[in-house]
Design goal:
The chain folds into two domains: 156 residues, Isopropylmalate Dehydrogenase, CATH 3.40.718; 153 residues, Isopropylmalate Dehydrogenase, CATH 3.40.718. 51% of the residues lie in helices and 16% in strands. The protein has twelve helices and eleven strands. Helix 2 links the parallel strand 2 and strand 3. The protein is globular and about 60 Å long.
């Protein structure tokens, strides 16, 4: 197995990427392909312990930065002769020279580069960014979390199919419960998008459990949750902010308390809270979001990612490769959409 790591993605690149490549090669015993300017990567690799036969540097003289937008970004993503670290890395996946691509760079740049260079799985019009959200029973798969601010009902159906396959193959959920984010549990609730998507999901053959409000999402009543990218992104950022707020408030309350009992209790509960934050609420544990629907495995992490987050991203990419996720998604899309068309015709 070979994983491509964009060496020029994170806010403090290439240091975290080089550290992550060495650590991942040591942990997994498989080739990590670092893509970026060789004159920057080789000295860092040497300084951090020297050459490793499982860490290969591929030269990419250009970079998609956080400042790249609009037409300039599209050209960097689309041009056949593009020499950015994203373009060269994703071309490795396209050509079969690597099994997955991981980056902590410009999200829009990664999505555009993957879309133009890999194309989409037949039947998928809009790829969806996929994330794992902590809930009462473990985690649920949520998509789209930002790739498509505007969607059609048919897009949400495809998100549901892909999310179900992801939950089965990667998360080990046998019959994933699929929910639709809405402002009420009743079938008639929601905006036009939700109302249009509901009957499609109900007729899809998936384990559709209906509309979900926030309390059901975090209460663990669904394994897959679908929404347009605008709603999903608001949910993601709000959830992250609330988690941080609650953690900060608890710490502040214990620190400022004048009660000896509260201070002792705080010291006793601190290891439990720390462990919970790490396992459930630390983005570095998952590492990156999967762009489901493009014709290759592409993982996009946060610009603030450190080496631990990138090793986690490589780990989850490996899991998807081992599970043959891409083949399973292709098959499910073809089978589900064909079955639905037949039912509609009848």
């Amino acid at each position: 197995m070979r994983i491509v790591l964009d060496a020029m993605g994170s806010d403090t690149c290439p240091e975290p990427e080089v550290v992550a490549a060495l650590e991942a090669a040591r942990l997994f015993g498989e080739e990590i392909i670092l893509v970026g300017p060789a004159d920057q990567l080789r000295p860092r690799l040497t300084a951090l312990g020297g050459e490793n036969p499982l860490v290969r540097i591929v030269h990419a003289p250009d970079v998609i930065t956080m400042e790249d937008k609009g037409l300039g970004l599209a050209l960097k993503a689309k041009r056949r002769e593009a020499k950015t670290s994203m373009a060269i890395g994703i071309d490795f996946v396209k050509d079969g020279a690597a099994d997955a691509f991981v980056t902590a760079g410009n999200t829009g740049g990664a999505m555009a580069t993957a879309y133009y260079r890999l194309g989409t799985i037949p039947g998928v019009e809009r790829p969806g960014l996929t994330a794992l959200f902590p809930n009462k029973t473990g985690f649920c798969t949520v998509l789209d979390i930002g790739a498509n601010p505007d969607c059609k009902p048919e897009h949400l159906l495809v998100f549901a199919i892909m999310g179900s396959v992801f939950s089965q193959k990667v998360r080990g959920v046998q019959s994933p419960r699929v929910g639709l984010i809405s402002n009420g549990e009743e079938a008639g609730k929601g905006n036009e998008l939700v109302k249009g998507a509901y009957p499609l999901l109900a007729a899809s053959g998936l384990n559709f459990v209906g509309n979900l409000e926030g309390k059901e999402i975090f209460g663990g009543e669904a394994d897959v949750v679908v929404a347009d990218g605008f709603t999903g992104n608001v949910l993601l950022k709000t959830s992250e902010a609330v988690a941080k707020l609650m953690s900060d408030l608890i710490k502040e309350e214990i620190k400022n308390s004048k009660s000896l009992g509260a201070k002792i209790g705080g010291l006793l509960v601190k290891p439990v809270l720390k462990n919970m934050m790490k396992k459930k609420l630390d983005p570095a544990e998952v590492g990156a979001a999967l762009l489901l629907g493009v014709n290759g495995l592409v993982y996009i992490g946060h610009g603030r990612s450190d080496s631990r987050a990138m090793v986690s991203a490589i780990r989850v990419a490996r899991q998807a490769v081992d599970a043959k996720l891409l083949d399973a998604v292709r098959q499910a899309i073809q089978e589900r959409l064909t079955t639905q068309k037949i039912q509609e015709a009848v």
